[in-house]
Amino acid sequence: MSRCFIVGAGDYSGGVPKRGDFIIAADGGYTALVSRGITPDLVVGDFDSLGGVPDHPNIIQSPAEKDDTDMMLAIKQGIKRGCRTFIIDGALGGRLDHTLANIQLLTYLAQNGARGVLLGRDICITALKNGAAGFNADASGCISVFSAGGKAGGVTLEGLKYPLAEATLSSDYPVGVSNEFIGAPARISVSDGVIIVTWTCGIEFLDEDKL
């Protein structure tokens, strides 16, 4: 098992799991999946968003008062099953605090040797730790890069309107915001630390083979 597809209770962008994905519904994400004819392998959460425990053979129910969010519970279950790539839909929109928490979870995945991508209606987000991500030449629109806590060193942006070479980004100065694809293969890399990368053209333009 290498890839986990998770759907939460936020705005569902219409992402579809691939054959072989381990599919997890995090609380209200269960409704988004089954309404589209997708049966999850596992359902987790305290089920406050769903309004009750669903009729499913594989359920992990948690108390409402807990440290882990429902999305964190889902991610931990995916890691437990050996998944190292996480495609997460229904994690953006809605409450801002949950959106910020889900972006933090990308850093959690990066710190634990995994990679996650949040899918939104008009944006995708990932985190890189001492690594790189590539985009094909058909990518278009806006791409931004931010430090995820403290400083991130050796940040290099290639194939974009505003390149960088071995730069240091800090969490208190957004110099990496609002870059642009230019119709060429693009590459984002960081050698020391964690960065958050957002882009507007969809996950299909990301080189998923390198996730």
Summarize the structure.
The protein is of the alpha/beta class. The protein folds into two domains: 3-121, Rossmann fold, CATH 3.40.50; 128-210, Thiamin pyrophosphokinase, catalytic domain (Rossmann fold), CATH 3.40.50.10240. The chain has three helices and 14 strands.
SSE topology:
Layout: E1 3-7, E2 22-26, H1 29-34, E3 42-45, E4 59-61, H2 70-80, E5 85-89, H3 96-111, E6 115-119, E7 124-129, E8 132-135, E9 142-147, E10 151-158, E11 164-170, E12 179-180, E13 186-189, E14 194-199
Parallel strand pairs: 1-2, 1-5, 2-3, 3-4, 5-6
Antiparallel strand pairs: 6-7, 7-14, 8-13, 9-12, 9-14, 10-11, 10-13
If you had to describe this structure to a student in words, what would you say it looks like?
This protein is an alpha/beta fold. Helix content is 16%, strand content 33%. The strands form two sheets. The chain has a ten-stranded mixed β-sheet with strand order 4-3-2-1-5-6-7-14-9-12. Strands 8-13-10-11 form a four-stranded antiparallel β-sheet, with no helix packed on it. Strand 5 (85-89), helix 3 (96-111) and strand 6 form a beta-alpha-beta unit. The radius of gyration is 17 Å and the shape is globular.
